[in-house]
């Protein structure tokens, strides 16, 4: 964390937050949401696991937010996750990490809807629960909350829509999905991984891990990995029951095992990024569904041997991006556009790019971290090169988290 680098919480309304923690603990103790005892089923390990780094960007109606790690990235206690903001219609990025009011070594998770941004600070060092902050005015004011468990290390472990929120957490021996019951400090269990795996939809999938949460309108969604070939583990809650919501995999991927990497919503459209692993390797598929529930799926994006996923997230509107890096260190930036099913390859961003941020009213930005140095490189449509347009020194206090 920049400047203060503190180890413990310094909440502006600490008494209220502590009271909320007691209420949240009480609520969680009395709810199971699924009718299955916690820990009844261990996490499955048969489905593929694709690394999903937390670095990403999201958009609100007021601007674009991004989170990237800075500092000494090979030292967990000297890695500090930063929260950057670019207002709509403006170019410079500003560092807003002080709003978290606690150490950020464990990583930040972002969720957005309309003007609202929800941020989760994953536990690290002596912190055992997850502080939350939210803003609906571009960071001019913040509200505090918390989840009493550890937020999962997934970029889509939080979701918000219409004033409601979902959280994917590590609880006991298994994973749980929580839903807020009025404010971001009061939660109950919506479903456990064990409960979802035991149901008909979970058995059809042979559910492995839970990977993401989101919304389709007002309907909660949960993404996961499947052990059964040809099934996408996207679950929707409908009248108290969970069902597989699609999308269907193209026929050629019928023998591949799927994992939902990302869930998002743009207006009335649900966006999903799926990794499908088969005998020939791993492919990425982007899928979109409108209010009628009909899915349109992109063409496959094959990952080269030993190519890693560096970051993914929303582009403009119904677009999704994927930032990839090969074993030689070379980057590949791909965009699944809204108007077609073929991925579009953009010029490779500069070395050190942690994530990419899109905006409808500004050029695309590549966000680069090198120790305490932050830089933003812009790319305009039609251009073939990235241009450095901002450099910022972020004061980090090495050793402050040990």
Describe this structure in words.
With 402 residues, the protein is mostly beta strands. The chain has one domain: Neuraminidase. Helices cover 7% and strands 46% of the residues. The strands form seven sheets. Strands 9, 10, 11, 12 and 13 form a five-stranded antiparallel beta sheet that branches. Strands 18, 19, 20, 21 and 22 form a five-stranded antiparallel beta sheet that branches. The radius of gyration is 20 Å and the shape is globular. Residues 1-42 have low confidence and may be disordered.
List the helices and strands and how they pair.
Layout: H1 14-29, E1 56-60, E2 63-71, E3 79-87, E4 94-95, E5 108-113, E6 116-121, E7 130-135, E8 143-147, E9 150-151, E10 158-161, E11 164-171, E12 174-180, E13 187-192, H2 193-198, H3 200-205, E14 207-216, E15 219-226, E16 233-238, E17 241-244, E18 257-266, E19 269-278, E20 281-289, E21 295-297, E22 301-302, E23 308-314, E24 320-325, E25 331-336, E26 344-346, E27 353-357, E28 364-370, E29 373-379, E30 387-393
Antiparallel strand pairs: 1-2, 2-3, 3-4, 5-6, 6-7, 7-8, 9-11, 10-11, 11-12, 12-13, 14-15, 15-16, 16-17, 18-19, 19-20, 20-21, 20-22, 23-24, 24-25, 25-26, 27-28, 28-29, 29-30
